[in-house]
């Protein structure tokens, strides 16, 4: 019998808390069962397996991040929107390292179809990200290329910063500002290809 008061939503929220406290790699069904004082089997009334748990976690924290980004960019366009987008991304990644690591889980649209079909999180992430980039006059296939550039830049910088990977005396905030300035320049002078139909799907 499922424990009274324990729901799938509460289980996933507890997984997010555990990720920040102990690291995403330590999020497991057994660890959560201990947290709730139940046997592992009790949790399988709420999730099929660890894969489903981690997919649900990735969607939860992805929603948290995009909500913060959306609030930061509202009413802005061009460089102002990019700066706000980048700043909200970095703040979330550094403040919630475990949650951020959970976002890097690869979601398989076939294996995870039940969870991702018409997902509000994935849809909202696409709308906000592509909307910001369309402010630079980009269409597909350039939109997808630009999303990949932003994601790799933001993720790489935040991962290195969180791990203490920047050893030079130069202030990391100044370097971050320069990186965002460089992205703005790249987006403004993007080497465009002929537009194609479609929006490019989910942010890559």
DSSP summary: helix tally: 10
Overall spatial form: globular
Q: Mean pLDDT score, rounded? A: 91
β content, as a range?
A: under 5%
- What radius of gyration results from the CA coordinates? 19 Å
Write down the secondary-structure element order: HHHHHHHHHH
Distance between the termini: 40 Å
The description of the largest β-sheet is:
none
SSE order and pairing:
Layout: H1 8-22, H2 29-36, H3 40-43, H4 50-73, H5 78-95, H6 97-102, H7 113-116, H8 120-134, H9 142-162, H10 172-188
Helix pairs in contact: 1-4, 4-5, 4-8, 5-9, 5-10, 9-10
Provide a descriptive summary of the structure in words.
The chain is an all-alpha fold. Helix 4 packs across helix 5 and helix 5 packs across helix 10. The longest helix is centred in the N-terminal third of the chain and has 24 residues. The mean pLDDT is 91.
For this entry, give a set of tags.
204 residues, globular
Quick structural overview:
By secondary structure, the chain is mainly alpha-helical. The chain has ten helices and no strands.
